[in-house]
Amino acid sequence: MQGRMLKFPVYAPEGVLWALRGRRILATVWAEDYAVVQFKSEEEDQMKRWTLSMMCVVILFGIGLTASLAMADEDKRLSVTVAFGRGLNTAQPGNAVNHVVLPHKIKIKQGGVVHFLVAGFHQTMVYKPGTTPEDIQAFIRDTPVTGTFINDLDNLFYQGINPAGGPLNTEATPTLGPPRDDRSNAMNRVESVGFPASEGVGTNGVASLKAEPGVYLVICNIRGHFLDGMFAFVKVKAVKAEDEDEEDD
After folding, report:
1. Cβ atoms 152, 139 nearer than 8 A
2. What gap in Å lies between CA 2 and CA 19, rounded to an integer?
3. Are 36 and 81 in the same domain?
4. Would residue 145 count as lying in a domain?
5. Exposed, middle or buried by CB within 10 Å (0-12, 13-18, 19+), for 14?
6. 36 and 84 share a domain?
């Protein structure tokens, strides 16, 4: 135990006792004709309070700096990974545990890419700003078709790989060995979806859309999966002039 010590006779003059006034007594040991008092001085108390105050300031500053850096990094992200299905170990048919998109809210800057890690029998559909989950629910309610896929093509930004293959998207790739019903793009794949800051066109004449700033709805096109809550939102932030300068550097 730290502090100062003072030894004085039991019948010490009043002035000696007055000297201890205002001190914080840590311990007192009595003998037959004297006493030993261990105490803290005002200077030590002030130093301790100052040290604790400085530690609090440093900790709060560190927390604030970390939070601000995290927010700045989040606002400038150009590449984000998203789980589209909660892992192949939960990809049993009809298992609602698998029917999720994680995280539920995604942020990215114009020009960035979202990598959907598809685990299970899923099809990614991305809608332009303005389409809501309620719109998809209304389409399901008002459409007499009750097949596996929803196929609401209104205001569509991106239509993902058909998990069973098909002419409209990437054809299914058979697994090695004898012909089988399951395909390598049916249960485990990565689909990278870009949100370009400008339009583009390939040599085949097919154009890629510019991603306007806003909130994009992402759903699984499998009817039952969407109804289980398998959807998310991608918030696309506009590119600023200083962001373009940083990319040039």
Report:
1. yes
2. 19
3. no
4. yes
5. exposed
6. no
* Residue pLDDT, tens place only, 151-181: 999 999 999 888 865 544 455 555 445 544 4
Give exposure, 188-213, as e/b (b: 16+ Cβ within 10 Å).
Answer: ebebebebebeeeeeeeeeeeeebee
Domain, as residue range, for 34: 4-40
DSSP 3-state of 48? helix
Place of tokens 């200077």: 43
Name beta bridge partners: 107. 235
Quick check: is 173 in a domain?
A: yes
Give tens-digit pLDDT for 44-77. 556 666 666 667 666 666 666 555 544 445 556 8
* Domain of residue 172, CATH code: 2.60.40.420
User: Which residues, in sequence order, are bridge partners of residue 37?
Assistant: 6, 28
